[in-house]
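Quick review question:
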């Protein structure tokens, strides 16, 4: 089944935005060979922007602007919200055009992450999100989406069509842990959590590309974490562009996402560059880490 067929019962505007991102992903996939060099600029987080970052950001924002569906876009690569004043549409889109792009240099998988709000306020809590998706550019190019009707995975085939690979994906019980941040900077509760996982035989898999590491958790089960660190109490990952869309998806797949004390989707964004400590994966490890932050421990 093709992606557009699978979306036939989804809200028309949401379906069109998902298909738009899928269409641009076909172009992004081809661009890795030609746009992979430094742009000499930095994003609002002070991170080096590859030409690819800026090119993919412009490609997606221009398409969303021209769709006449979207009123506002918040992108990891834009320091302000892009207001599309003339749009007839009301949707809001949050976007990480190319997450983990530094991994392109080592030919590891990278992703495009997006969240969609029916009402255009892109600073809404994630629990107001109406759909989320990510494209993973790896040995295969896959697209995973949810529009509150389960999680569904598609793969780009030889005819450049996204074909259904797995419907109603659910998070299995598993023992992968994907720990971001340097151990030397761990806070005590996180250190206790990680050593408990290791004592239970969890296996470390970490690539430095959130979408790729998330895919491993969704496929094999376990937990991804980018925690509060001694020097970075809010961790590294961005609430709007990374944590919320993937937390929406993991909950639809039967998992959980927390900052250690609170459900990610219930956190009110304070600004577009809001960062959060992130634990995302199976109920068991998420409940465990929250018990450590409550001081209950094992
Ligand atoms: P580190 C990429 O820049 C990113 O935002 C996520 O994709 C990834 O999980 C994280 O940062 C990697 O951070 O500190 O391990 O390089």
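Suggested answer, residue by residue:
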């Amino acid at each position: 089944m093709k992606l557009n067929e699978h979306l036939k019962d989804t809200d028309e505007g949401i379906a069109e935005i998902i298909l738009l991102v899928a269409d641009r992903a076909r172009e992004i996939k081809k661009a890795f060979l030609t746009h992979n060099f430094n742009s000499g600029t930095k994003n609002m987080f002070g991170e080096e922007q590859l030409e690819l970052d800026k090119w993919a950001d412009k490609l997606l924002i221009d398409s969303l602007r021209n769709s006449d569906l979207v009123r506002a876009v918040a992108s990891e690569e834009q320091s302000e919200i892009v207001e599309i004043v003339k749009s007839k549409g009301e949707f809001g889109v949050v976007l990480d055009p190319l997450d983990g792009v530094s991994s392109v240099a080592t030919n590891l998988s990278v992703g495009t992450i997006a969240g969609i709000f029916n009402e255009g306020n892109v600073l809404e809590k994630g629990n107001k999100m109406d759909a989320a998706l990510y494209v993973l550019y790896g040995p295969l190019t896959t697209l995973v989406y949810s529009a509150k009707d389960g999680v569904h995975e598609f793969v780009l085939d030889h005819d450049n069509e996204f074909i259904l690979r797995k419907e109603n994906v659910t998070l299995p019980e598993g023992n992968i842990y994907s720990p971001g941040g340097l151990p030397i900077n761990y806070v005590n509760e996180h250190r206790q959590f990680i050593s408990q996982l290791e004592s239970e035989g969890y296996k470390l898999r970490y690539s430095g590309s959130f979408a790729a590491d998330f895919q491993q958790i969704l496929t094999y089960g376990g937990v991804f974490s980018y925690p509060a660190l001694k020097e970075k109490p809010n961790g590294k990952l961005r609430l709007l562009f990374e944590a919320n869309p993937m937390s929406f998806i993991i909950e639809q797949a039967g998992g959980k996402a927390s900052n250690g004390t609170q459900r990610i989707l219930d956190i009110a964004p304070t600004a577009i560059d809001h960062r959060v400590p992130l634990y995302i994966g199976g109920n068991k490890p998420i409940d465990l880490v929250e018990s450590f932050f409550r001081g209950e421990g094992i």
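Why it works: DSSP finds seven helices and 15 strands in the chain. The first helix runs from residue 3 to 6.
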